[in-house]
Amino acid sequence: MSFPPDSARQTSVTLEQVSLRFDRGVEALHDLNLRVGDGEFLSVVGPSGCGKSTMLRLVAGLLRPTSGSVHIGGDTKLAGRQTRRDISFVFQQPTLLPWRSVEKNVRLPLELRGRVGDEGRRRVAEVIDLVGLRDFARFYPAQLSGGMQMRVSLARALVTRPSLLILDEPFAALDDITRQRLNEELLALWGRDRFTAIFVTHNVSEAVFLSQRVVVMSARPGRVLAEVPVPFSFPRNAELRAEPDFARLTGDVSRTLRESFR
Fold it and tell me: Do residues 183 and 261 both lie within one domain?
């Protein structure tokens, strides 16, 4: 088994005039247009219930739009199917299997793909080390803190070296210091592998710290209200959060977000 080179693990995402109406008539998204470039880190903010999570599920192929189109990676159907196999999803809750150790939880995606060999075992050990859990590989979820459980969830998502990483408020339940540390660790992993990332959050400061661009969605039915480029260079460290320019940009995004409630 061999993992693909970095250049093969980047992918673009395009949503064109995407609308989604549920069976009971609730329209979650309306004419949403968005493009995420190869290897881009994009954050999405918006009011509760505006369709952010629905959009992520459309990208992941878990839902289908009522109208419009979602393009992942290559233009051909074969390339699109291949790219969808290289998508990983990190949910708000760690969703770990309580009867499996850290190591076995992380290994699960490789098992499901029949890719557990010597290289697979090395990859499991590598990602566990990358998220700082080398000494906890044989621990079970109940023995870990919330932040450590989320590290396991992140390692599990990264073990297949996805071309696209989708994250739906993964750090929302954590205390602020743990959240900030995980933000920094996630950016370090992105800087190392340069996967394409779409990150949904309610925390504007988190969105600005992590991303190259912040998308602000309108209230339901969701559409793109604004796109705000983030000019800060990488790598980013904790000191950035204390910079006046960071506070200014965070304020700008917050004001745009408030407009989405009107």
Answer: yes
